[in-house]
Amino acid sequence: MIRQPIVVTIGHIDHGKTTLLDKIRKTAVQRKEVGGITQAIGATEIPTQIVKDICGSLLEKLNIKITIPGLLFIDTPGHEAFTAIRKRGSSIADLAVLVIDINEGFQAQTDESIRILKEFKTPFLIAATKIDKLEGWIRNENECFLESFKKQPEWVVQNFDKKFYELVGQLSERGFDSERFDRITDFKKTVAIVPCSGITGEGVPELLMTLAGLAQSFLKEELEISKGIGKGSILEVKEVKGLGKTIDVILYDGEIKRGDWLIVGGKEPVVTKIKALLKPYPLREIRVEKKFENIDHVPAAAGVKIAAPNLDEVIAGSPIATVHDEKQIEEIKKELQTGIEEIEFERTGDGIILKADNLGSLEALISTFKERVPVIKAEIGNVLRKDVIEIEAVKDPLRKAIIAFNVDIDEIAEKDAKDRSIKIIQSNIIYKLIENFDDFIKQQKEKIKLEKLETITFPGKIKILAGHTFHVSNPAIVGVEVLDGKIKSGYKLQKNGKEIGVIKSIQSESKTLTEADRGDKVAVSIDGPIVGRHIREGDELATVITQKDIAVLKELNMKEEIELAREILGH
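Below the sequence we write its predicted structure tokens.
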């Protein structure tokens, strides 16, 4: 038996991933997503007949016969298709559609997507979206790209070609040969680019046709279904009226029958019997659908809802398997346990804490953050007081943070965190967590810098102005100009390398200042010297600098200040 290929959409935020699928299934899933960004894994089955209907006469023109049973699209925030729903050591995805806005080209998360595709060795094509946004583009609703392209003015065609080959160049820089899908002679060596629009539907027929063609030509062995054991991954755990706890599953191999034994992987594997199998109707999205078809049997690949007893402790993202024979249960439990252990990561005594709502999200967080910063703990569940106490023990201020994805913060934990100045970064959008964490790091570095600068004396040079002696001694009060650097109250002053006194206060226009910078003209009172004996009008004085002060300036890479400090010290 040949199953339908599992296709994932991946790419930069707002480049049109969900909009493309919406156009195909004529739904508005995107409107139900937080911030217009896909946050939970969804599955949509596109049967062969729908593919044929959308492609229309294009298949006849190109003499293509579709033999696969359809396409199963997984719509994800990005990492989850490759971490949450996976086989041991690899992604369940057979093909990927890397979505790139033709007007914007490669962005940060496009490169991250390429890295993931390389890591999992997933074949992919490019959907060059938003062609309808090109200047002057004449929209032709739901037409093939090739037909619509013929109707564009010459200057629009030229503008398209410019943008298109900029994208080809960006792919070349990253080690990929690519070309427009209709100009490729060897799809094994060249990445296909399909120009399209999720708004107008232009190019969608070619996108589906190319995906089907690639799957039929190059993935025949991968699409063969094993008989017997069903293998899959849990998308979500949901309470359903009349059924109790249910699990939404992506089945990527084998088959499931009502009455089969269901084994769910975890620290404590769950073994139960399947009570009901529910499938969303074709073109319906499993995350948001409320009506399902009650079935007795489902072969891979499919999105299916499973009802069974004892699913209360089951976690989203866990691997599952189903067997007919009770004797196979123990062997399968061991296999799934190994799969769970692969989620483990290198813990450190000085790192951040990650909290998420399910196993898949947690994997995505680990994958995202472990390259940025060490992780001390990663758990499913709300942020609790014990997390705050644990992170407080972390010494490095750049790691004193709790990252909370799609979970709540316990009221006591929130108060404790505030009292102890612990940062909790909370969001239900993964990339927002990354941005906010990067902002936290910047703020912490600036805070550390300011705290270190408070412990040292800045290099500074002043000149006593002629005719500006206001008090000769105890303290000496003189008018000065700051020639370079800065001076502060409490700084020691020197003349020709010899310490002569301490700045008691700084004033300007009857206002007391804490410091004065280069170019400022101020009155300073100095404890120690006598004007006319130790210091005179026209003298240049400097702050007293130590090697410790210079070491801090070097650590903070303050080049101008280091140069002035060396000048003051005479080397």
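The domain at 460-569 is CATH 2.40.30.10 (Elongation Factor Tu (Ef-tu); domain 3).
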